[in-house]
Design a protein that fits this description.
Number of domains: 2
Shape: globular
Number of strands: 9
Distance between the termini: 23 Å
Radius of gyration: 17 Å
CATH architecture of the largest domain: 2-Layer Sandwich
Order of helices and strands: EHEEEEHEEEEHH
CATH class of the largest domain: Alpha Beta
């Protein structure tokens, strides 16, 4: 597990498939090879009023860690991240009288997965409740585990195929984390941040710029 950076790519006046095709051609031109598909999904649950202060649980899955269920509990004052096994999904089903899924908020990012040298690139089409919202690009630099040691390299690589839409500064998520050991939960938290923004966007995120 290396350091992963997630950024939004502007759709502008294209469809989702057209945008993915353009990005695929760019990354292929650099010598990348496609290695299957990927999927990250997120479902959000809210506590029932009987529990008092409202709590929100976000449950996410990442095809890179198929045996793990990621969850983030928001209590209003802090967020508690957890990485558990597949039984957590069953637990949430059994707790349906306490936590209920928010309607029409299921978010997914899925698409082709590429490998090029030490990098892994994923081009994700984002949907919320099956409605197209935008494009997310995930880049992982696998040999490094500390963001500050490889950020410049990742930034240069991303600008190489994203052009002016590539990031010029670390995403806000990395503030105060640049010198910490990176973990799969960090990737999940980045996805949740972007999914939250997409959920609030009425249209296909074509005006949204990368961080």
């Amino acid at each position: 597990m290396g350091v992963t950076v997630l950024t939004q790519f502007p759709v502008e006046n294209r469809t989702g498939p057209q945008t993915i095709e353009i990005l695929s051609k760019r990354i292929n031109a650099l010598g990348a090879t496609q290695q299957g598909q990927f999927l990250v999904d997120c479902e959000t649950y809210s506590s029932v009023p009987a529990l008092g202060h409202q709590r929100t649980v976000h449950v996410l899955h990442n095809s890179e860690q198929p045996a793990t269920v990621f969850s983030l509990l928001e209590t209003g004052t802090k967020t508690i991240p957890l990485a558990t096994d597949g039984l957590f999904d069953l637990l949430m089903m059994k707790m349906s009288s306490f936590y209920q899924s928010k309607k029409q908020t299921k978010a997914e990012a899925k698409g082709p997965r590429y490998e090029i040298g030490d990098f892994c690139v994923k081009l994700g089409t984002v949907t919320v409740s099956s409605n197209f919202k935008g494009i997310l690009v995930e880049v992982e630099y696998r040999p490094c585990a500390v963001p500050v040691m490889c950020w410049d390299l990742i930034m240069e690589f991303m600008q190489g195929f994203l052009g002016s839409s590539g990031p010029t500064n670390p995403p806000t998520f990395f503030q105060n984390r640049m010198q910490e050991i990176y973990s799969p939960l960090d990737t999940i938290q980045q996805y949740l941040e972007h999914f939250t923004v997409f959920r609030k966007t009425p249209g296909p995120g074509m005006l949204m710029r990368p961080q």
